[in-house]
Design brief:
The protein is of the alpha/beta class and 281 residues long. The protein contains 9 helices and 17 strands. 34% of the residues lie in helices and 20% in strands. The strands form 5 sheets. A 6-stranded parallel sheet has the order 6-5-2-14-15-16, sandwiched between helices. It has a 5-stranded parallel sheet with strand order 8-7-9-10-13, sandwiched between helices. α2 links the parallel β5 (46-51) and β6 (77-79). It is globular, with a radius of gyration of 19 Å.
Length: 281
């Protein structure tokens, strides 16, 4: 079997990056993030900013990022809602769905040609919302029990709020599963399906695409399974001392996106960073 040299950031033509913990933290841009985005835009790089949050439309997220100091074009944002809609469009064009979620999810499904209904749907699609309704959850349980397929946008069990943790999609999905004995198909990270749909979106190839993330258990494992170069930054969830506890490693580790940006500016002559070693085919 052929052994290839490890890939570096200078081999990369297209970029995927997580949002929270990589580009922003508590609604503030992480140092280097604005420069990195501007560099990708000015050099014509194909890139997408990924988020498991299905609440917001790309237009909403662009506005939120602008308020944090990041100018990300609307077309460069890819959410779990969009990935879910694209997956379902390929599975059942013009299908019917009962949806629990916000505008980010309903808009994506409408754009994908789905009819949103609580009458004989093909799918029950569960996404993020700040106002989970007992009535809607009960309706979802009955529809799934009657044969509708169960889909969720992401597996996150909790979400943040100023007052503390909130139950999120994964927690509500567990409730529905307990009532129906039906496990959902989860489209968002760590399912590499979300990354594959993102690659298709920008016509990218896995061999020349990188994923920048702050979580080993979502960003890095999904990027690895999708065949991407994986870069872990230490500005979010996973800290340097945590990496050894996982049975897999990122290809590269950097303190922040500022380091990646500086490395790109320095060119291929820059000193190599810590890598996980060569890959075998």
């Amino acid at each position: 079997m052929a052994i290839h040299e490890p890939r570096s950031v200078h081999d990369i033509e297209c970029w995927l990056t997580d949002m929270d913990g990589v580009l922003v933290h508590e609604n503030q841009a992480i140092p280097g993030a604005a420069e990195m985005i501007a560099h990708w835009v000015s050099t014509g790089k194909r890139f997408l900013v990924l988020t498991n949050n299905s609440i917001y439309t790309p237009r909403d997220l662009r506005a939120r990022l602008l308020s944090s100091g990041l100018d990300v074009p609307e077309e460069n944002i890819w959410t779990s809602a969009m990935a879910t809609a694209e997956f379902l469009r390929r599975q059942r064009p013009g299908g019917r769905a009962f949806v629990i979620g916000e505008a980010g999810l309903t808009t994506a499904l409408h754009d994908a040609g789905f009819i949103l209904t609580d009458q004989d749907p093909d799918y029950v699609v569960l996404g993020e919302t700040r106002t989970y309704s007992f009535e809607a959850i009960t309706r979802a349980i009955r529809l799934i029990a009657a044969g509708a397929r169960f889909i969720t946008t992401n597996p996150d069990a909790t979400g943040p709020s100023p007052e503390g943790l909130l139950p999120a999609t994964g927690s509500v999905a567990a409730l529905i599963t307990q009532a129906t004995r039906r496990e959902p198909y989860v489209v968002g990270k760590p399912n590499p399906m979300m990354f594959r749909s993102a690659l298709n979106r920008i016509d990218a190839h896995s061999e020349t695409t990188a994923m920048i993330g702050d979580r080993m258990d979502t960003d890095i494992i999904a990027g690895m399974e999708a065949g991407l170069l994986t870069l872990l930054v230490h500005t979010g969830i996973t800290k340097p001392g945590d990496v050894a506890s996982f049975p897999f490693r990122p290809d590269l580790e950097r303190s922040s996106v500022a380091d990646i940006f500086n490395e790109l500016l320095q060119g291929p002559e820059a000193a190599p960073g810590k890598a996980s070693g060569p890959h075998e085919d």
